[in-house]
Amino acid sequence: MIKVGIIGGTGYTGVELLRLLASHPKAEVAIITSRSEEGVYVADMYPNLRDYYKDLQFTSPNTEQLASCDVVFFATPHGVAHQMAGELLAAGTKIIDLSADFRIKDVDEWEKWYNQPHGAPDLVNEAVYGLPEVNREQIKSARLIAVPGCYPTATQLGFLPLLEHGIADTSQLIADCKSGVSGAGRSAKIGSLFCESTENMMAYSVAGHRHLPEIKQGLECIAQQPVNLTFVPHLTPMIRGIHASLYVRVKDHFTDLQALYESRFANEPFVDILPQGSHPQTRSVKGCNTCRIAIHRPQNGDLVVILSVIDNLVKGASGQAIQNMNILFGFEENLGLTNLALMP
Amino acid sequence: MIKVGIIGGTGYTGVELLRLLASHPKAEVAIITSRSEEGVYVADMYPNLRDYYKDLQFTSPNTEQLASCDVVFFATPHGVAHQMAGELLAAGTKIIDLSADFRIKDVDEWEKWYNQPHGAPDLVNEAVYGLPEVNREQIKSARLIAVPGCYPTATQLGFLPLLEHGIADTSQLIADCKSGVSGAGRSAKIGSLFCESTENMMAYSVAGHRHLPEIKQGLECIAQQPVNLTFVPHLTPMIRGIHASLYVRVKDHFTDLQALYESRFANEPFVDILPQGSHPQTRSVKGCNTCRIAIHRPQNGDLVVILSVIDNLVKGASGQAIQNMNILFGFEENLGLTNLALMP
Amino acid sequence: MIKVGIIGGTGYTGVELLRLLASHPKAEVAIITSRSEEGVYVADMYPNLRDYYKDLQFTSPNTEQLASCDVVFFATPHGVAHQMAGELLAAGTKIIDLSADFRIKDVDEWEKWYNQPHGAPDLVNEAVYGLPEVNREQIKSARLIAVPGCYPTATQLGFLPLLEHGIADTSQLIADCKSGVSGAGRSAKIGSLFCESTENMMAYSVAGHRHLPEIKQGLECIAQQPVNLTFVPHLTPMIRGIHASLYVRVKDHFTDLQALYESRFANEPFVDILPQGSHPQTRSVKGCNTCRIAIHRPQNGDLVVILSVIDNLVKGASGQAIQNMNILFGFEENLGLTNLALMP
Amino acid sequence: MIKVGIIGGTGYTGVELLRLLASHPKAEVAIITSRSEEGVYVADMYPNLRDYYKDLQFTSPNTEQLASCDVVFFATPHGVAHQMAGELLAAGTKIIDLSADFRIKDVDEWEKWYNQPHGAPDLVNEAVYGLPEVNREQIKSARLIAVPGCYPTATQLGFLPLLEHGIADTSQLIADCKSGVSGAGRSAKIGSLFCESTENMMAYSVAGHRHLPEIKQGLECIAQQPVNLTFVPHLTPMIRGIHASLYVRVKDHFTDLQALYESRFANEPFVDILPQGSHPQTRSVKGCNTCRIAIHRPQNGDLVVILSVIDNLVKGASGQAIQNMNILFGFEENLGLTNLALMP
To answer: Is residue C305 within 8 angstroms of chain D, CB to CB?
Structure first.
């Protein structure tokens, strides 16, 4: 049984870590921190937790206490992990960061998009990008893992086989992505109000979203060449779910794409290639760690349409973080992650 | 490991049984039947099941095969179980019926509300009403269990301590209940369409709902006296959840109701009494088997307001069915039912 | 054509006034104020207004300018109108206040519930409670109108004929009310977030809601005797709508309640009594000024169930405010209020 | 005052015609037909209509009676209008067909996609495609108007200026479209149930949707050259709204696209070009006839992203039908269509 600490546990990724870890047979949450909610019971904020965490309280973050944990998750907004990571690593704790602080290798690029100086540029290089389907080996021996964002996870897994196989025309990739509202977090913003976001569909940040450089970096790393990506996120009136609709021209007309995808992900516990002709539903992954993918080639043309869905809070955040933890500690990769999606 | 059969598995209670049993360490689904979907894979109907039940297919119901199961769940509309139960019981199988066929002890009353002759009136008396908080002992030795309906579960648990304690004015009980749309099942009815039920609230069946006689019978059994009940169900634009708002005048002004409820349910694994002043949220039980209850006495008057919430598909149907199965087979009562609610 | 001013127009009742007044043939919006949004175009905040109000901007409130209006609407939170009303009335402008400032005749009671000293106690008495179905004559000659709240409107219209007719047992009235989320306004509160309020049903403020004294006062005024009211509001996952489920024991078993209600409201342009056995849907009044009511007497008992629905932003706020304006200025009562509900 | 007949008025486009025509000063509904609902009051099916159409009943379709109307709307599924149109035209009535029967000029193509022989191929050529922004002059003198589909309207208006101006690379147009559930109509299908479509996002008919040939024909007609279109529709959990996200490479880097769009639609009453950098919301057109468009060129590249939103039941069906009627009868184009969108 390993000891887990969670920093910044009041947000949706924090409560999702608690929900998933409650059924994990080899990990237990020892500490959960929140400056603003110090002393509050987690179950008072999220009453679903009463059935397991009746006595767990938020505490103020304390490095010494946290250092007693085998692993610490950062479920904070960006800007926190890069300031605390160094000290915790020095104390021998492993770090799994759900925020964006260590995802982008180019520190200048990071500082531009996140609008602040980076507090630990030296650690950026060491950090392993925690997409197990790409970096499983590096994750095993990592000290510091940067868990991918939600859009980046759905998009990279969707493009992956085409890019690895070298048949994608990388001069123009399009990712038209639809996200549930929980992607905006639990902060009190007008735009996230029920009355502002239900019965509505809209694109946002078309001029440039913070996940753009992360996705681009990931795709280029997979493709081993520059890619040109247009990324358009949309806000969808549902709590959870990312639906990525990916458009890419293939250079080779004869590859059996269905077979290519099935073979690439055959041994992946959390990637499910749907039968030919399928349309994945975001609700089919609601609350579970699976990414479901379908491949289409309308009118048998050269433009391929990949549909890729995940739960943004699970495979797009907390579930993937636990998957990384399992790999890191040599557990079976699906421990604590076997629950089926809630449907309906 | 016991063998489970499910009859009529295409509806929402059927898929919910499959979801919950997937994590049950001592039960496995051997057979699932559906006349209309014979040969279809359950995962083609409910893609969330792909992560566990990739090979399970619907079969046509066959008594001989079903008799090989240790227990058979009826997840059918009313009118099926009363025709098949006798033969299965004779073959030695235990039956847990999620439909209404064996809930009402007065066969004439049942025939009036369900508008058909009852095919096994002799079994009605033997059937145990599967509300563990009331009938745990009888459940242990039952052959045939009638799982309570969703409204009846939330309402009976809410009124229970007041009625047992004899301080409720039973001449006028009011249950104003709000249900999610999944209570209407998975049949293609205009009234259950998204465009007909979202962004809308309405009462229905105010003149008389089929759950009325069931609730009344249960309350009278608990109170050991006649009760007068007004039951008004409402359709609420959400998938899951029952919110029962119960109104009852208490005859004794001095009882500490909070203490009464906490003490009555102290050892119940699936009833959670919230702290004084709380307002239970249906989402706090979304996907889990807990019933959460809060007790209010506005302006310190004699009219008590009890708020009781459950997930209609879990504690109101499939979860409670599995709880009954656990009791019946001497398992720990919460096996397969430990998952936390999905929130948000 | 009269000139209209709107104070505090950034909230949902403000934009609803703009929407409805855009089709009013005898009124035009001259001024709309907001301290925080001074200089902002209303259409930038609510893009639906681009089709009519492309050039209207928020200005800082200025009494002299406002005094040039024939009527000023307060679409502010409580606490603003009681401070500004005196000066505006002195300047000869009529006031229609959508907030709670002048609804409650007992100033001490108001100060207790609203937690502040009242700035114009002398005006409280003069203010006319703007429920046209009760106070049409007084409205005609009013200077200051207090528009009823949303819950109070649905509840009072529902109980009205029984109370006037003297057959209600006033010792125990119950109002179990369900409101859409727009009732909470457009402020950035966690509880109003999409992810916190969708797929959820909950009661709130059971111990005491600010609309309780307003409803009680109104009912007692109609009944001409004290009433005992239990009022339980619930938050429902929809944008608009109030569904009031009212429970009352009648003292006379023989009155034809359907006929009583139909006759009482026969000449009311905005109250629609549904045929016997109906269940009004909140969506049937979405965006329109109608209150629809159905009367039930389950099992032909003495407990009567009244179902009453309105759109909280229209008949429960801005539409009723315009209805008051029409009466006040001698216009046809339904000017600007003839649009049908949006369904689906 | 012209007399209007509506054939097949039980669906969502039928009730929407009734809602909009209720406020039309120069048209009145004389006849509404439905074989299955003969004798039923329209207000019993859609209670929002009680406020205007209390006495209107569905009748069985009768050509003689219909011929007494100045104009007949077909609000039927495809396959009805092509069988009845000839007789009605011969009787001198104008026809505005909201179904797909006369939209596609190539009869073989139509028969392939709609899977039936066309009953009036001779009329296909005469029919005018009722997109006023393209065909206003022909509409004025038409006898038979084919109202465009919802996806085709949003998509064609979005691409229009680029295609007319000749700067679009027509070798690869992509339309990633999101539709509310009302687009699927009011028929009792499992896929349209609340529990199946809420909290979910999914693509459908990626292999080929019936609107594909209609859009392609329209775009080619505008561009005066062949176009290559990939069209991917998605089902979105909301009642109303189409959000079209359009991707197209422009051949000329220097054109001011914002100015091009503003100038092209300057005199169009129902097309609204948003300011640079905007993201149109579907709710901003909920219930109104406006199409709102924003133009983006991410990272100043050659791939242009056009965002175009309409209400599928208004500008995508019934509102556009009335707009056509207004043009046809020489009325002001916006009669009956001036209501603002309902927001929130």
So the answer is: no
Whether residues C284 and D47 touch (CB distance < 8 A) is answered with yes
In chain C, domain spans: 2-126, 151-311
State residue B253's pLDDT score: 82
List the single residue in A with minimal CA-CA distance to C199: A239
Return the beta strands (E) in A117-273 as ranges. 128-129, 144-146, 173-179, 202-203, 229-235, 242-249, 271-273
**Each residue's pLDDT tens digit, A252-265:** 888 999 999 999 99
> Which pLDDT band, with edges at 50, 70 and 90, does D258 fall under?
very high
Query: What pTM did the predictor assign?
Result: 0.98
Tell me which CATH code domain C151-311 carries.
3.30.360.10
Q: Span A2-126: which CATH code?
A: 3.40.50.720
SS (H, E, C) C121-176: HHHHHHCEECCHHHHHHHHHCCCEEECCCHHHHHHHHHHHHHHHHCCECCCCEEEE
Q: Residue C179 corresponds to which tokens in the numbers above?
A: 């409101």
D238 → closest Cβ in A201, A303, A305? A201
- Residue B321: CB atoms within 10 A of its CB come to 27
Specify the pLDDT at position B252: 85
Task: Output the CATH code of domain D151-312.
Answer: 3.30.360.10
How many distinct helices (H) and strands (E) make up chain A? Answer: 12, 14
C47: cis peptide before it, omega within 30°?
no
Per the prediction, chain C carries an average pLDDT of 97
Task: Name the nearest CA neighbour of D158 among D248, D221, D41.
Answer: D248
pLDDT at D99: 98
* Positions of chain B with pLDDT under 70: none
What is the model's pLDDT at position C252? 85
C300: left (phi over 0), alpha (psi -120 to 50) or beta: left
D161-218 pLDDT, tens digit each: 999 999 999 999 999 999 999 999 999 999 999 999 999 999 999 999 999 999 999 9
Looking at chain C, which residue has its C-alpha nearest residue B182? C199
Percent of chain A with pLDDT over 70: 100
Residue B255 tokens read as 């009882």
Query: Angle at CA C30, nearest 5°, toward C28 and C36?
Result: 130
Enter the ipTM.
0.97
Angle between helices C132-140 and C319-328 (to 10 degrees): 40
What one-character DSSP code corresponds to residue C225?
A: S
CA distances from C26 to C137, C152, C329, C335 (A): 21, 29, 10, 8
Note whether A194 contacts C197, CB cutoff 8 Å: yes
Cβ distance A207 to D277 less than 8 Å, yes or no, reads yes
Tokens of B240: 């899951």
* Fold equal for C2-126 and C151-311: no
Contacts of A342 in chain D (CB under 8 A): none
Is the CB of residue C47 less than 8 Å away from at least one CB of chain A?
no
